[in-house]
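User:
Care to share a sequence and structure tokens?

Assistant:
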Amino acid sequence: MLIRQKAISSNKVDILWCILLSFRGRGKSDTPKAGYDLEDHISDLEAVVQHAEVKAFHLFAYSRGVSYALGYAQQSIGAVRSIMVGDYPAEHRTMPEGWADDYIHNYLIPYDRSVNIRTAAVRGIQRESTQIPLDRPLELPILVARGLLEGSLISDTDLARYKQMSPSVIVKEYPRSGHALKGEDKARFFRDLIQFADEQDDL
């Protein structure tokens, strides 16, 4: 997840502050034995925002992190200036029985991705996650990025739900991507994110 804040230096030069957040059980963050539902992840985001003392910022999240970003924005009116969501519907999903083993043995281990998320966190997500809709109205600009190939997690129905959440929804679609938007469409995807945030700063 990425938090971006625009500031002005003492010599009146624009400065962009970006904070990259790894949630519990990911990256270099601690891995608690429990605490992997929606509210737990929202509390991680709250802690980072408070520690960094950012007051108004743009929020980008990808995949399951989208649910944490939406949950935070719905509870923190005024702090978030815009949201950019990467290929995930407006909901927090409960994970089916067997998902953790499949994810660990068919993705984490074969692709050596255990540094990104520990197995304890994967099992915690399956064990504790609850199904929660997150499509409440938000008075925020929203950028929705989705792949058009098989594997994308945003259906046409999901996209329609996003469009009902805010009067300011921009949709960007990537014809060479499924769920993974940082493949062949990576450069265009990143340009779209930067352009969207810049446009909100100029308003």
